Structure formats: C-alpha cells, structure tokens
C-alpha cells in the first residue's frame, strides 16, 4: 500500500464520536459473542453427557421390556415393545439383536422433517456414539440393544441459542449506542466546545470567548486551562493593540499640537473626494502664520510652540465635528471641509478664523502677540479635481493672500 498522497490533499478522518461508537459497539459485540459461544459450548457438553446418560437408561428399559420376546424369539412383540419406547424418546435408530447378532426388531425415526439432514449433522458431531446394552435372562446374555441418539432437541437448543444470541447482540448494540450518545454528551460535547472556541478565536480573533464548564473533572480542568490561556492572549492582544494605536497615532499626528499631520490629511482628502456625491462640494483651506519667524527670534522657540498650540486650538474650535484640521509643517495648517452643499458657506468660516486670531496670545513670560494668518481656499471641482492639485491651488492662493494682501483669505484661480 502506498503511503504517498498529493500535497494539499486532506485525508478523511473519523470523528471522535465515531471512534468511540465503534469501540463501544465492537466491545459489546465481542463480549456478547464470546459469552454466547462459551455458554453454548458448556451447554453442549452438558447436553452430551445428559444424552449419553439418557440413552443408557433407554437401552436398559428396552432390554427389560424385550427380554421375554427375545427368549421366545417373538419378533412382532419385540418390534412392538421397541417402537413403543423408542418413539417417545430422543432416539434416532434402535435395534434388538439376538446373541448371534441377528436383528430381531428395529426402529428408525421418521425422516420427513425439513431439518432432518441438519439433525443428523448435529447428532453426528455432538451426540455420543451408539449405545450398546446387553439383554440378559437368568444371568446369561441372550441379546443386545443398539441405540443412537436423535439430534432434534439439540438442534432446537442450538437454534434457540442462536436466536437468543442475536437478540442479545441487538440489545447490546442498542445499549452501546445509548451509552455512546451519553459519552458523546459528556466527553465529545466538551471537546467540541473547546474546538469551536479555538476555531472561532483563530478565524475571527475573538479573544473574549470562553469555554463553558465541563461535567467531567479532567475536561473541566482542560477548559479552565484553555480559558486562562485565552485570558493571557486577550491581555497580550489588548496591550499590542494599544501599542499599535499609539504608534499609528504618532505616525499620523503632530506631537506638538496633537493635530493630524500632512500624510494623514492627504490620505483623508483622497477618501473624501472618493465619497462625495455628484451634487456635493469640498473645500481645502491652506493656512500660514504671518511673521511667525519674528516670534521665534524675539521670544524664543517655547513662545513659538505656545503660538502654534493656540492656533491649533482656535482652528479646531471654529470647525464642525467632522471637519479636519492638520498641521502641514512649521506654521502651516490645512483645513478640509467636506461635504458641502454650497461653497458660499466656506467664506464665513474663513472670516471667523481670521477674526478669532485677533485676540492676543499670552506667552509664558506674560507677554502677548497677535498671530495673524493668511488663508488660501480651493474648491472641488471648481478649482481642481485631485488631492495634489487642490492642495497646490490652495497653497498658491495662500501665498497671494500673504504677499499681495498682507493677510486675510483668497480664493484659488479658476481653471
């Protein structure tokens, strides 16, 4: 037999329930079959001894009965007496012989039965050999009685034994099935619970699942150990998720202001463009601080950080919850307004942002500065249709506002 199979093929394997059922059925059938065969053999030996003893008694009885007929060589009387006794006993064939061995009378069991051949087979292999008993008169042997047993009773016994054995086998099979189902409920069900939880955890990463308690002590301990392992995995997974979230936040957000960075803003801008409906608009505001370098030069970098943090907080406070503000680098910020039903709603927001920056910013040394801003505004699809072009148009509009208008806001040039 070849032990080589194709790579990737999954050989068919029986389930634990099937294995246990087969074992229970096999053990039940072997036990009942062995017990039935042993009891049948014991009964056959006992019946053989009983049949031998019975044949001797029958032969003795025939000897006493036909004594007178043998003395007077009365064949009809001998035949009548022989038939009277043999026909009522378990005798297959009987003969009465004189002292020269000549048959005076004989009787043979009827051979009309449907099972006669089977009876003879059983009698040949199970019953003892023919019984020979002397016929005596006044102390002298005057003849012989020759008998062979009939296998009719033995055959009935064997047939009943086989029927009984089959009934026992059927009952044993039924009991084995019932016990197997109880075993499945007590053992296999608990193992299935563990396997199902393991499969679900592996497939869906559901580390909050737990195995229910098992009724069997060993399986209960296994379930508890498995649940403890899931507890450790869940704790480790939560810790790993927190670290991943922290790393993701660090990679996509500015460490000083807490705002999203340029990479996050550009990615979100692309998603927003893809999600827009045909009748919706989108606006990008590119913002740059005026004279920010002077703040750093005159008051130090700590003051510059304070100004940037304050600008970030004021920008965030002037926007809707779903709008996005990001720090693009240095003193540059960008705002994403989406979706918009009307582009005219953007201009009041820009005015509000510029107005809120008129309030002085208090530095750590109690000095104050004014953080004036320049804003460039670009609309989709009026000014550009791609994220890069929208940022470029808004950036150009911001530079025009900064250098031509010395602050305030300006719209991008139409395409």
Major sheet, described briefly? 5 strands, mixed
Q: Which stretches are poorly predicted, pLDDT < 50 over at least 5 residues?
A: 1-5
Integer-rounded radius of gyration: 55 Å
N to C succession of SSEs: HHHEEHEEHHHEHHEEHEEEHE
- Strands in their spatial order, largest beta sheet: 6-7-5-10-11
Kindly name the structural category. alpha+beta
Give the number of DSSP strands. 11
Main CATH class of the largest domain? Alpha Beta
Q: Kindly estimate the percentage of residues that lie in beta strands according to DSSP.
A: 15-25%
Tell me the number of helical segments per DSSP (H or I, 4 or more residues long): 11
Helix content: 55-70%
What is the residue-averaged pLDDT? 83
Head-to-tail CA distance between termini: 78 Å
The best one-word shape is rod-shaped
> What's the CATH architecture name of the largest domain?
2-Layer Sandwich
Number of domains: 3
CATH topology descriptor of the largest domain: Beta-Lactamase
Instruction: Give me the CATH superfamily of the largest domain.
Output: PAS domain
Could you describe the 3D structure shown?
The protein is α+β, with helices and mostly antiparallel strands. It has 3 domains: about 15-170, Beta-Lactamase (2-Layer Sandwich), CATH 3.30.450; about 205-250; about 260-410, Reverse transcriptase/Diguanylate cyclase domain (Alpha-Beta Plaits), CATH 3.30.70.270. The protein has helices at about 15-65, 65-70, 75-85, 115-125, 150-205, 215-250, 260-275, 290-300, 300-315, 345-355, 385-405, and strands at about 90-100, 105-110, 130-135, 140-150, 280-290, 325-330, 330-340, 360, 370, 375-380, 410. The strands form 3 sheets. A 5-stranded mixed beta sheet has the order 6-7-5-10-11, sandwiched between helices. Strands 2-1-4-3 form a 4-stranded antiparallel beta sheet. A two-stranded antiparallel ribbon has the order 8-9. Helix 8 packs across helix 9 (about 300-315). It is rod-shaped and about 165 Å long. About 25% of the residues are buried. Mean pLDDT is about 85; it is low at about 1-5.
